[in-house]
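Researcher: Here's the sequence for the chain we discussed earlier.
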Amino acid sequence: MNDVALSVIAALGVASAVAMLVWALRERSRADRAETRLSMLGDSGDLVRAQAAQSAGIVADELLKRADETFRNRDLLAQQRLETQLKPVAETLAKFEAQVQAIEKTRAEETGGLKEQITALLQASEATQGEARKLSSALRRGAGIQGRWGEQMLQNVLEMSGLAERYDFDLQPDMSTDEGRRRPDATVKIPGGGIIVVDAKCSLNAFMEAQEATDDAERAAAMARHALSIKGHVAGLSAKAYWDQFRDQTPDYVVMFIPGDGYLTGALEHQPDLFTDAMKKKVVIVTPSTLFALLKGVAYSWRAEDRFEGARKAAD
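Model: Thanks. This is the structure I predict for it:
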């Protein structure tokens, strides 16, 4: 039942009550006139008067009863109207409460998941710090340990790039030259029968001294020694001149692998022209990230070569 219908019913109830009151007043007036006439009749009028009084009482009771019902109906209609108006509000509040409960549940779940992730991250960080301490301790044992670690890092990058050992690259191959035997850390095969010579250089003593320095001056001096060490490795690798010894197989440069981006970044802060000087000496300095990109290009070239060879065989 809508608000308009309820309003109409309430108005009809009030109108009915007013009409009955008017009718009662008219009856009362008639009774008064009848009383006046009966007073003139004497004793016989007493009986008529009693009957009239009884009838008037019955009518009054009936009027009161109907008026009471009318007012009760009006209160009921008003209550129904109020309930109808408040029902959307109650439904909205119920939906809001459900949404709040859902949000609270989601927040509790996310908080629990976040705590687990933070705990896992802390554990991983502690494990990483532990491994870093172990690595730092191992690297301090001498140049041989550092060299083997650099060679292992080089092998990891070669394998992660999608190249296969002995098919796409060789580790520490023996290469005879006019000046004797050469043994680079790796040679990467490229389409057309060529190779790229890669040598890992990992002298980190000065770098680790810089990390443990207690003041800026000491740290700067250690990083300067680290940059000079890398520059010395560039000069030594350039002197081997692999591009002259394998002119028909290798490009006119050699790749020098540094097993960490941070090691090169620290050196560049003190030797900004390190890259330029290295390229002048036909040495390309790479780190794990840049070597990975270079090797991905080689792997793509091999896939293109395989497709071309497959197409040629199909054509034959």
